[in-house]
Amino acid sequence: MSQLPVTVVVLAAQRAGVVNPLAQRAGVSHKAMVPICGRPLIEHVLDTLTTLPAIQAIRVVIEPDGQQAVEPVLTTYRDRGIPIETIDSDSNIVNSVIAATRGEDTPVIITTADNVLLTPNSFEQARSALATCDAIITLTTRDRVWAVHRQGQRGFYDFRDNGYASCNLFGLNGRKSLAAAEVFREGGQFMKNRGRMVRAFGLLNIMLMAAKLVTMRQGMARLGKRLGLHIDAVVYEDGALAIDVDNARTYAVAEWILGQRLGMDIPKPEIPPGT
């Protein structure tokens, strides 16, 4: 069966007015250009995306002063035949996604420039699920993350059946599905801001989840009903997919995992809890 043609949006912008600590540590201007295993974060993501079939375009969302920094990288990957362009980012993530979709009524998969552990298989699982619904999110379970590294991810959404972590890959199937993006209008930092979570998901849904009275699948069904969409969740077996490069701790874990994949001798990081 042929794959669903999709446009991929890569979110690469830094938070306005905030100097990214990883970029500062690496001596580069933008987080997307922070090297890991010898190459910028965004290169590892583009390595995966540009090997996949039926990718109509890749749109990198980044602030105007960051576009010059990533342009040499993008030029290299344009030679692989997929149109790649930059889109001016907005201070709000939803507005950035809307700008990148250009109002086109086509399927879009969204990821981030720090999602260096993205694999072709995980992308194809998400694409396959998106073909049968309005929107998808990708998750893995707490035990699968901990099986990879106990400190690889610390933020989990607890449901009746398990704790789940986001894997930084989302799908929207056409203009109607942009309603699902509204969940993230206030930034998506739900674990740190319960008010945002309530406004996005609804107080009753949050109460049910907090009391562990609903499973993850039941929670997705309730969210879909709230938004008037069929939303599905792809649950990965590979817990590494929930580990992106957010800070020095997750950088160390991601570097170790990526190094294993690339045949590099990088020791497993020993990270005490709470550091």
Q: What is the general shape? A: globular
How many strand units? Answer: 10
State the order of secondary-structure elements, H for helix, E for strand.
EHEEHEHEHEHEHEEHHHHEH
Number of domains: 1
Strand content: 15-25%
Helix content: 25-40%
Summed up, the helix count is 11
Pfam families: NTP_transf_3
GO molecular function, one term: nucleotidyltransferase activity
Protein name: NTP transferase domain-containing protein
Keywords: Magnesium, Transferase
Describe the structure.
It contains eleven helices and ten strands. With 275 residues, the protein is an alpha/beta fold. It has one domain: Spore Coat Polysaccharide Biosynthesis Protein SpsA, Chain A. β8 (157-158) and β9 (163-173) form a beta hairpin. Mean pLDDT is 89; it is low at 186-193. This is NTP transferase domain-containing protein. GO terms for molecular function: nucleotidyltransferase activity.
Condensed summary:
By secondary structure, the chain is α/β, with parallel strands linked by helices.
Protein traits:
37% helix, 11 helices, Spore Coat Polysaccharide Biosynthesis Protein SpsA, Chain A, 10 strands, 8-stranded mixed beta sheet, 275 residues, two-stranded antiparallel sheet
